[in-house]
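User: I'm writing a tutorial on reading structure tokens. Could you give me a worked example: one chain, its sequence, then its tokens, then a sentence or two explaining what the tokens reveal?
Assistant: Sure. Here is the example chain.
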Amino acid sequence: MPNKIYTARETAITFADSAQTPSYTITLSALANGAGRISAQADRGAGSTASWYRWRATIQQATAGTVGNTFEIYVSTSDGTNPDGNEGVADAALSAENKLKNMRLIGIVIADLTTTNTNITASGDCWIPTRYFSVVVWNRLGVALKTDTAVHSVKLTPIPDEVQ
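And here are its predicted structure tokens:
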């Protein structure tokens, strides 16, 4: 009899403003257009962990935006000493857009409405095999994110395969 392979979803890792009590902090409230941010570095531990994740990002625009503009999500992996892009391991502003060149794009949230105070959410799958990583974002929406510490987040849910 053949085996079945299921997806064994695990607990999501949340990257968000500190007011949301996230797993790791990334300050997204009022993030300006043409600016980026890097999160505190996640440490998945020394043991075996999932490499595949389902990401889900939710944002809100501060003012009326343009349909089709984007909010980009990257990861900066690390060996524990040298993070991709050398942007550090703490919640901070990204020093330059060029730093994204040495990070890996994992997803894009595309503005699908122009209104404010309304969630724009997108999701996808990504592969993160390293023990240490940070979430990095870049705002290309044409407008700032809403000034609110309770609405913006990037969640990564581990989705390891389970063979039965």
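What the tokens reveal: The two ends are 11 Å apart (CA to CA). The chain has a mean pLDDT of 95.
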